[in-house]
Structure formats: C-alpha cells, structure tokens
Write a structure and sequence with these properties.
UPF0478
C-alpha cells in the first residue's frame, strides 16, 4: 500500500463519517415533515365539520334576522298608527277643550269683577 492509497482510505472514511453525521439531521427533518403532514391532515379533517356548522349557524341567524325585520316593520306601522290616532284625538278633542277652558275663564273673570270689593274675593 502506498501513501496515496492510505490517503484515499482516510478520505473515504472521513467522507463516510460526514455522510453519517449529515444523515441524522436529514432523518430528523423527515420525521418533522411526517408530523407536519399529520397535523395538517388532522386540521383539515376538523375544519370541514366546523365550516359546515358555521354555515348552518349563519343560515339560522339570517332566518332569525328576517323574523326580527318583520317584527320591527310591524312595530313601525303600529307606531305610525298610534301617532296618527294621537294627532286625531288632539285635533278633535283639543280644540273644543281649549275653547271651553277659555269660556270658563272668561265667565269666572266676569263674575269676580261683579262682586263687591270687600266680599268673596280671594286675597292674592
């Protein structure tokens, strides 16, 4: 064996050790990728039912909002009817009440001015 052959054997041994040292991290990286693949599959499997449930919830919420919209529309109509009724009552009853009140005030003022000064008047 010559010096070149011994150097070749040493270089081959060092190369084999280097390959073995590099193989360990590569194997660990492969295990990490396997775990990552499993996590993504689990996440995907659990996300699909969750999306279905969210879709169902949104549909139910939309139905409830449509019902609430109908209720608020009816309340708005009832409020407008009450407002109109109040205006009608005020116009019908309010004006005659004001006239009666003015008339009674006038009669009371006229009667108090006819009484004698010493009797019947209230002191203010």
């Amino acid at each position: 064996m010559s010096g070149g052959d011994i150097a070749g054997l040493i270089a081959a041994g060092v190369f084999a050790v280097l390959v073995a040292l590099l193989a360990v991290p590569i194997l660990k990286l492969g295990k990490v990728f396997d775990e990552l693949r499993g996590s993504i599959k689990t996440l995907s499997d659990e996300t699909t039912p969750l999306i279905d449930e969210v879709t169902n919830t949104v549909s139910t919420t939309n139905l409830q909002l449509q019902k609430v919209d109908g209720i608020s529309s009816n309340v708005s109509d009832a409020s407008a009817n009450v407002s109109a009724l109040t205006s009608l009552v005020a116009a019908t009853v309010g004006s005659p009440l004001i006239k009666v009140s003015a008339f009674t005030y006038g009669v009371r003022t006229a009667l108090t001015s006819r009484r004698p000064a010493g009797r019947g008047r209230r002191s203010r």
